[in-house]
Amino acid sequence: MEKEQMESIAFNIILHSGLSRTMIHEAFKMMRDNSFGSAFEKLEEANDKLLLAHTSQTDLLQQYASGETFDMEIIMIHAQDHLMNTMTLKELALEMLYLYEKLENK
């Protein structure tokens, strides 16, 4: 794989996981405002962006699994880190949504 193609995949992962992260933070604000339905919808929207990032990662892993070799660029390491952190943040946000709703219903 050429360096430019690797960078393109990395930037795609960063773009979509970054958009997802922004949406997750918007959902946190909605949770604080007790707009739980809107927060859930925003988290679903964030998940759609996260899936786009994850698809890019999966495509890369499939190429690697099929025997293609390439030099790992630092930008790809950053992209992977960005994606994994956003995935963790999404899981945390879903748990927090549940807790906010539970607190509101007490």
Automatic annotation (TrEMBL):
PANTHER family: PTS SYSTEM N,N'-DIACETYLCHITOBIOSE-SPECIFIC EIIA COMPONENT
Pfam families found in the cross-reference section: PTS_IIA
Protein known as: PTS cellobiose transporter subunit IIA
Modified-residue entries (Phosphohistidine), positions: H78
PROSITE patterns named among the record's database cross-references: PTS_EIIA_TYPE_3
Domain of life: Bacteria
Gene3D superfamilies, sorted: Phosphotransferase system, lactose/cellobiose-type IIA subunit (1.20.58.80)
InterPro entries associated with the record: PTS_IIA_lac/cel, PTS_IIA_lac/cel_sf
Keywords: Phosphotransferase system, Sugar transport, Transferase, Transport
